[in-house]
Amino acid sequence: MLTIKSTPEFEHVEMLILIVKHGSFRKAAKELNVSPPTLTIAINNLEEKLGVRLLNRSTRSLSLTSVGEEFLNDVTPVLNDYRRVIDNLNYHRAKPEGVVRLNLPRVVLELFFQRYFVNFKSEYPDIKLELFTTDRKVNIIESGFDAGIRYTQDVPKDMIAIPFGEKLSLIPVASPDFIRESGEPSSPNELINFRCINRCFPSGKIYRWEFISPQGDTTEVSVKGDLVIDSDAAMIQAAESGLGIAFVYENIAMEKIKEHKLIRLLSGYNYPADNFNIYYPSRKHIPVPLRTFITWVMSMNKNVMQQ
Predict the structure, then answer these.
(1) What are the DSSP calls for 103-147, one per residue?
(2) What CA–CA distance (Å, rounded) separates 307 from 302?
(3) What pairing do the DSSP bridges indicate for beta strands 98-104 and 62-64?
(4) Alpha-helical runs (H) found in the chain
């Protein structure tokens, strides 16, 4: 029968789990923001207190021993229960604590940073909000995120999703100088005769501009132009500088339109609007910080719907 020399620290067990997850002391140390020697000392301490060797280590490989694998299989559920119990204490705090890690497209920050993220942080100062932007789709579970934000059609089917903000539309805009010099199209199909600023996907594929006519017909147009951008903020700057017609989110362009620095074109046509969703894994226990953020977003949705 194995005799435990002394009770190990949960922190050291969590370090072991992270090392095994990454298969590397260096990568685990980087995530924890500590030095690799610090992790080595922690694992040595853990093995000494348990009285067994948990890891097979060499300069080129890292693996669990059979005892180490059995230990992790047994202790991980216990550690998860411990985290859940500690996390539930957040309910008894005036302001919840913890971390929410979100993966989201860059445009979500351009659209919602002040209204959602800044206001949430002002209301919940003890929750650390970590925002990581990428326009490429990622697996939020494998990448270590609590939740993601994507358009409805991009949310994985096995995730729980709730609307994040109002439905959004893209609109074509151009500067007054550009319109004076080049005129303006009277229909989406006429856009091919104008210099346009192309939008591209992360894959590099060029986006086809979409329109819905007053009669409800849908049209897609492949516009022409010598400038390709993947940022709405940059596209608006380019359009304001007279470099062409841009197809951008109405919410972002509205201030420039009000200032008469940009003019909306083809106002009789609409865009097939959609909204973003915040999505997260389907599981019984949702960490209190994430649950707090989701509840707050749902309350914001009510305000949006009433506008």
Answers:
(1) EE-HHHHHHHIIIIIIHHHHH-TTEEEEEEE-SS---TTTTT-SE
(2) 9
(3) unpaired
(4) 10-22, 25-32, 36-50, 66-88, 106-112, 119-123, 176-182, 232-240, 250-258, 288-306
Query: Which residues are bridge partners to 276 per DSSP?
Result: 151, 164
pLDDT digit string (tens) for 121-148? 999 999 999 999 998 889 998 888 999 9
pTM of whole model > 0.90?
no
| CA nearest neighbour of 12 among 50, 48, 39 | 39
Query: CB under 8 Å to 43, separation ≥6 — which residues?
Result: 12, 15, 16, 19, 54, 55
Rounded Cα distance between 198 and 219, Å, is 17
Joined tokens for residue 104: 């989201």
Looking at residue 90, its pLDDT comes to: 63
Give the count of alpha carbons within 13 A of 81, CB side only: 5
The Cα–Cα gap between 159 and 161 comes to 6
**Complete edge-to-edge strand list for the sheet that includes strand 274-281:** 127-133, 98-104, 147-151, 274-281, 159-168
What pLDDT sits at residue 14?
A: 85
Least confident window among 17-21, 92-96, 289-293, 295-299: 92-96
User: Residues near 224 by Cβ (< 8 Å), separated by ≥ 6?
Assistant: 192, 195, 196
Read off the pLDDT of each residue in 51-80 and give the average, rounded to a whole number.
85
For the record, the structure tokens of 64 come out as 């669990």
CA distance 106 to 100: 17
Strands 274-281 and 159-168: antiparallel
